[in-house]
């Protein structure tokens, strides 16, 4: 019996979050032939002490595209202001559309008790929106999903209030993860 390729959507709050938190896992999915979509909620527009907000926003967008290209992933750029992602009706509807657009079997997202509000709130939005992707009366540009995707949280930077249940060995994709992170040259 041949394994059907999966469609995987990873949602991160900031450009470089996905690479840092689950880049090795995404590389592993891509290497085995699964479709990977990387969605970034905020645009990184305050991620510089030397560039204007518009300049760093464009730089970080290009860095995210370069990182996604390393594993053949698509990028969805949600374009909210960095440090100002709020969980509202607008962001919920946008998150529903992102998930519908990607049509994933699996969604990976931030843990909801992360130290950073953009992480926690985008994690909540992703968790909640994936349930609503199957509701026909919630209308977005993409059609409602026939199957609700499975959802996994990825660990926080410090493991705060997070008890992992699944571990992924990324020994074979660790170098790729490093290359993905290195795409974000504007960040240290």
Question: Please, could you describe this protein's structure?
Answer:
- By secondary structure, the protein is an alpha/beta fold.
- The protein is 38% helix and 16% strand.
- It has five helices and five strands.
- It has helices spanning 17-31, 53-70, 89-102, 117-132, 174-182, and strands spanning 7-12, 35-42, 74-80, 106-110, 150-154.
- The chain has a five-stranded parallel beta sheet, sandwiched between helices.
- Helix 3 (89-102) crosses helix 4 (117-132).
- The chain starts with 6 loop residues before the first strand and ends in a 6-residue tail after the last helix.
- The model has no long low-confidence stretch (mean pLDDT 96).
